[in-house]
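Weekly sync, protein design subgroup
Attendees: M.S., D.O., the rotation student, P.L. (late)

Item 1: inverse folding check
M.S. brought a backbone from last month's batch and wanted to see whether the design step gives back something sensible before we order anything. D.O. pointed out we never logged the input encoding, so this time it goes straight into the notes. C-alpha cells as presented (477 positions):
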C-alpha cells in the first residue's frame, strides 16, 4: 500500500471517528434535553447575561422543547431568554407555547412583530395567540397584517370561543367534482400556494358545498382518466362552525376521523379540522373536567397567583358553608353524643365513606355525560344501575364495619346502627352522584363545575343524620 493510500485511510478513519464523537455528543445532548442540569446551565447563563452561551445551549433543541424551556425558567427570566435566543423564537416555538407564557411574551412585543408572527402561523394558532389580547392591542396587531390574513383571523374571531370556527384551519384543498384524477394530480403539482401537509382533498359542488372526499392514497392509486365523482367517498362527517370543540372531539373519536370539513350556516366549506388539533382538545377538556371537579380552577402552574387564589378560594368558601351545614346537623344530637361518646368517634366513618362512594358515582356520571354515553334515553337505567351498585357496596361495607365495631367495642347494637347508617348513606351517595350531574346538565350547567359540592353536602349531612338518628331511635344514646 502506498504512502498516499495510507494517508487517505488515516484521514478517513479520523473523519469517521469525528462523526462518531459528534453522534455520541448529539445523543448525549438529546438525553439531557430539559433535564435539571441543562435548565440550571441555561439559568446560570441568563444570570450572567451571557446571551451567546444561552443561544448555543438552546440552538440544538426542538421547537417544542424550547417552548417547554420557557415554562421551566422563572417568570422574570422569560423575556431575557426570548431576547437571548433571537431568531430561534420562530413560529413553531410560538405555536407550542403555554397560553399564559405566550400571552406574557406577546404583550412585550411590538404590534408589527406580532403581526409578522401571526401571518406565518396557521389560522387556528394565530387566533389562539391574538384572542387573549386586549381589544386595543388586538386591533393594533390586525392593522399591521396583510388584508387577506387579517380577514381570515377576524372571521375566526367572530365565532364563539372554543367553537369549531375558532379551531379550524383555512388551509385546505378543495376541487370541483368535474375534475378527473389526472386533473387533480396536475393541479396539486402546479399550485405552489397549496398547503404543505394534508391527508384528503374535499370535493365541492358549484355552490362550494362539500359532497365528498378523496384520500391521497386513492388519488395515487387510481388511473388518471377516472372522474373524481366516481371514486370520492360520499360518506363524510361535516362540522358546523358553531359546534363546541368538545362535541367536535367526540365526533373525531367516534368516527375515527383524520380530518373533517367545517361548514358555515349555509353548508359552504370554510375550513377543516385535523386530528392533531383534536388530540390537544381531548387532553385539554379531560384535564379541565378533572380540575373543575376539585375546584382547582384552570390548574395551570403558569397562571398568575392572584387568579389561582380567586378560583380556589371561591370553592373553598362554598365548602366551608356546606361544612357548617353538616356541623349544624351534628349539633342537633349533641345530647346523644354527650351520653355516648363513641358516636363522635364513629360518625366520621359513615360520612367519609359516603363521600367517597358519591365521588365515584359522580366521576362516572360526569364522564358519561361528557362523552354522550348518558342521555335522556338511558338516564333511568343508569340511575337504577347505580342504586344496585350502592346497595351492594353499602351492604358489604355495612357488614364489615358492623362486625368490626361489635368485636372492637363489644356492643352489637352499636354495630347494627353503624351498619344500617352505612347502607343508607351509600344509597344517598349513589342517588345524588347520578341525579345531581344529570339535573345540572338539564339546566345547561356544566356538571363538572358544581356537582361535587352538592354531593358531598348530601353525604355529610345524611351520614351524620342517619347514624346519630338511628342511635337515638334505638335507645343507644
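Designed sequence read out in the meeting:
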Amino acid at each position: 500500500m502506498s504512502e498516499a493510500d495510507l494517508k487517505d485511510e488515516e484521514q478517513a478513519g479520523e473523519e469517521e471517528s469525528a462523526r462518531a464523537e459528534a453522534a455520541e455528543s448529539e445523543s448525549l445532548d438529546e438525553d439531557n434535553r430539559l433535564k435539571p442540569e441543562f435548565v440550571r446551565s441555561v439559568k446560570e447563563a441568563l444570570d450572567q447575561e451571557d446571551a451567546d452561551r444561552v443561544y448555543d445551549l438552546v440552538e440544538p433543541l426542538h421547537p417544542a422543547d424550547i417552548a417547554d424551556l420557557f415554562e421551566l425558567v422563572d417568570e422574570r427570566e422569560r423575556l431575557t431568554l426570548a431576547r437571548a435566543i433571537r431568531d430561534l423564537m420562530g413560529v413553531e416555538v410560538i405555536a407550542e407555547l403555554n397560553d399564559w407564557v405566550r400571552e406574557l411574551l406577546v404583550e412585550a412585543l411590538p404590534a408589527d412583530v406580532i403581526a409578522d408572527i401571526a401571518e406565518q402561523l396557521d389560522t387556528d394558532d394565530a387566533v389562539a395567540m391574538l384572542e387573549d389580547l386586549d381589544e386595543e392591542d388586538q386591533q393594533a396587531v390586525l392593522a399591521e397584517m396583510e388584508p387577506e390574513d387579517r380577514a381570515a383571523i377576524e372571521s375566526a374571531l367572530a365565532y364563539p370561543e372554543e367553537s369549531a370556527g375558532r379551531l379550524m384551519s383555512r388551509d385546505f384543498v378543495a376541487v370541483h367534482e368535474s375534475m378527473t384524477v389526472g386533473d387533480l394530480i396536475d393541479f396539486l403539482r402546479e399550485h405552489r400556494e397549496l398547503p404543505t401537509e394534508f391527508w384528503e382533498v374535499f370535493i365541492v359542488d358549484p355552490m362550494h358545498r362539500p359532497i365528498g372526499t378523496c384520500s391521497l392514497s386513492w388519488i395515487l392509486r387510481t388511473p388518471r382518466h377516472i372522474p373524481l365523482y366516481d371514486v370520492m367517498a360520499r360518506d363524510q362527517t361535516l362540522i358546523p362552525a358553531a359546534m363546541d370543540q368538545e362535541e367536535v372531539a367526540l365526533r373525531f373519536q367516534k368516527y375515527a376521523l383524520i380530518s373533517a370539513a367545517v361548514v358555515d350556516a349555509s353548508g359552504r366549506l370554510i375550513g377543516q379540522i385535523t386530528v392533531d388539533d383534536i388530540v390537544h382538545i381531548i387532553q385539554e377538556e379531560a384535564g379541565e373536567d378533572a380540575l373543575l371537579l376539585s375546584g382547582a380552577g384552570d390548574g395551570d402552574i403558569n397562571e398568575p397567583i392572584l387568579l389561582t387564589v380567586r378560583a380556589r378560594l371561591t370553592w373553598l368558601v362554598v365548602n366551608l358553608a356546606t361544612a357548617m351545614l353538616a356541623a349544624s346537623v351534628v349539633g342537633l344530637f349533641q345530647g346523644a353524643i354527650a351520653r355516648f361518646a363513641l358516636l363522635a368517634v364513629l360518625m366520621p366513618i359513615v360520612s367519609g365513606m359516603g363521600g367517597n362512594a358519591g365521588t365515584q358515582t359522580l366521576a362516572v356520571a360526569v364522564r358519561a355525560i361528557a362523552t354522550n354515553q348518558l342521555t335522556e334515553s338511558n338516564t333511568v337505567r343508569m340511575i337504577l344501575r347505580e342504586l344496585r351498585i350502592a346497595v351492594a357496596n353499602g351492604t358489604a361495607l355495612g357488614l364489615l364495619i358492623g362486625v368490626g365495631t361489635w368485636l372492637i367495642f363489644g356492643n352489637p347494637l352499636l354495630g347494627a346502627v353503624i351498619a344500617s347508617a352505612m347502607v343508607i348513606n351509600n344509597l344517598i351517595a349513589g342517588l345524588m352522584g347520578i341525579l345531581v350531574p344529570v339535573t345540572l346538565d338539564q339546566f345547561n350547567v356544566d356538571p363538572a363545575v358544581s356537582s361535587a359540592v352538592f354531593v358531598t353536602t348530601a353525604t355529610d349531612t345524611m351520614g351524620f343524620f342517619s347514624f346519630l338518628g338511628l342511635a337515638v331511635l334505638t335507645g343507644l344514646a
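Discussion: Strands lie at 174-176, 200-204, 210-215, 238-240, 259-263, 269-274. Residues 1-10, 17-30 have pLDDT under 50 and may be disordered.
Action: P.L. to compare against the previous round before Friday.
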